Amino acid sequence: MSIAPARPIRIGGRIRTAWKARSRQERLVYQLLLPVFGTVFVLATIPFVLAIIRAVTSDSRGFVGFENFARALSNPLLYEAIKQTAIYAAIALPIEILGGLGIALLVHRTIRSNILRAAIYIAAMIPIVIPQIAVGVVFRLVYLPDYGILNVLLGQTGPNQPLWLSSPPLAMIATASVDIWQWTPFVYLVMFAGFQTVPSESVEAAQVDGATTWTQFRHIELPYLRPLLLLVLFFRIADVIRVFDHVYILTGGGPGTTTEFLSLYIYRIGFQFSDLPQASALAVMVMVAMTVFYTVVSRFLPADRG
Amino acid sequence: MHRSRRFTKVATALLLSVIAFVFAFPLFYLIATSLKTKADLFAPVPSLFPPDPTFAPYASVLVTRGFGGLLLNSIIVGLSATIIAICVAFAICYPITRLPASPRLRAFVLNWALSLRFLPPVAVVIPYFAVIQTIGLYNQLPALILVYTIFNLPLAIWMLRGFLDEIPIEIEEAALVDGASRWYAFRTILLPLSRTGILAVVIIVFAFDWAEFLFAFILTATPQAMTFPVGVQGLVTQFEIIWNDMAAGGVIAILVPLSLMLIARRHVMTGLTFGVIREK
Q1: Rounded distance between C-alpha atoms, residue A185 and residue A130, angstroms
Q2: Which of A187, B90, B135, B271 could serve as a FRET partner for A28 with CA atoms 20 to 30 Å apart?
């Protein structure tokens, strides 16, 4: 298909053929996009619709209105799960973000060798690309009683050794520490990339003016990092809601329900108690909440939005 | 002055070494455990270096326990889902990057894709579970291929769109003006130019498919369709005491994405941040 005007005889005709060519291209956009994108859109939206249908119906009684939502919301364990998830996030996210930022600042300021920087880049990638299940295995070998290396290194292998995976406050710390181990490097990588975007002229100007390390960070570099910090925060919040694999392997949500985070809770309602209507109501609420969350945060994301 | 700078340097190096040690040590212990014999496991104090290292746990996992089959399932599902995803992503990215699509349409497609990333898998899998049971795909590889394709598509779309945006449109336009068909221009100009990008997307999407656990855990029941991570989970909960096999399973699960990511290392951050961070 050629976009050259077919009969460039009169001015009016040329404009008309140009317009026709343009509209033909725009038609092509929809002709190409609609079948594929439409199919994918439907396939990805189906679960949402089905979850709603499932949540407002019962196998024996048909339409039941908001009964399943009411049941889901009146379960005290839901609030327990939300609380545990919040505690997990409150432990892991600040350490990940401040730790990652701090290491990035340290490496950016003190390491000049490109080879060393590249080596740290690759090393930092390793925890991130490890499957969550394998991370769970890694940390079972760290936290297990008797065989776990942590207690061995601490010299605590007797009957009174700390039970990292099966005593309440420790299990929370153990599961959150895994998150920190896996995702601090991610924050580091994002922040380190952020430091490279700070124009060196501004930094040099500040240094000529005698800015201290802190003022240079606070007033020159931090403004460049702020959008990335927001991005990291949003991604990490979304990820905390998804946390499942490594906790399932490490504690299974226990002891009791002390590490039963939101995803594990929904899983248990749906697949261990086989209460799919209630789980569907929870799924709908989580999907709505995350969609709202996404709509709000997407305004702040630094990506060019199309 | 000089002295204090040297002190800072040493202190920094020390601090970074400690951090590196904390991060590396758990992985080291995993590898060490995966090389231990059964007898080593019952030593009163677990050793850091296996006294007589052996690959027997790997053979035990892959052959005796039949995890070789699960590995094959993971590869089949991962490859199929990745190939379908890259084709679909191309069909979606081509019109929004190479044709005069309206900015609103472009933003809608990209935003919709990114919003999928924010949905927790557990919320998505509950309704899919019912559908997949109804249409008879429960415990079948095609069910996993379908779900993996859809939920890694956003990543494929965002990465590919970034790569396509970097290829100047003028070369294709020149060919079109010379009378080439759009298909010909796509095949002989755009496709070869985006080869690196396609490879990066394929590698990263495959690594994500490979690592996926929850969908496979819920949508499969027997080794016929189970993927490798589901098998590893089974090792942990059922054979608690056999740590060397469990560790070997973990090492195998890690090796595949790790080696892939090392190949595509320049694009990993782009993938993980949906193109917000671009490595040069």
Answers
A1: 12
A2: B271
**pLDDT of B34-89, one tens digit each?**
999 988 887 878 888 888 899 999 999 999 888 999 999 999 999 999 999 999 99
Mutate to test the interface with B, among A25, A129, A305 (most CBs of B within 10 A): A129
* ipTM summary value: 0.90
Q: What is the largest CA-CA distance in chain A?
A: 97
Mutate to test the interface with B, among A19, A20, A48, A137 (most CBs of B within 10 A): A137
Token reading at A240: 């905390």
Q: Is the Cα torsion angle A246, A249, A252, A258 positive or negative in sign?
A: negative
- B150 to chain A, any CB pair closer than 8 A? The answer is yes
Query: Are the beta carbons of A127 and B23 separated by less than 8 Å?
Result: yes
Q: Tens of pLDDT along A112-147?
A: 889 999 999 999 999 988 999 999 999 999 998 888
State which H helix or E strand residue A58 sits in. Answer: strand A57-58
Q: What predicted TM-score, i.e. pTM, was given to this entire model? A: 0.89
Angstrom distance (rounded) from CA B226 to CA B70: 6
DSSP one-letter string for A167-206? SHHHHHHHHHHHHHHHHHHHHHHHHHHHHHTS-HHHHHHH
Q: List chain B residues with CB under 8 Å of A190.
A: 269, 273, 277
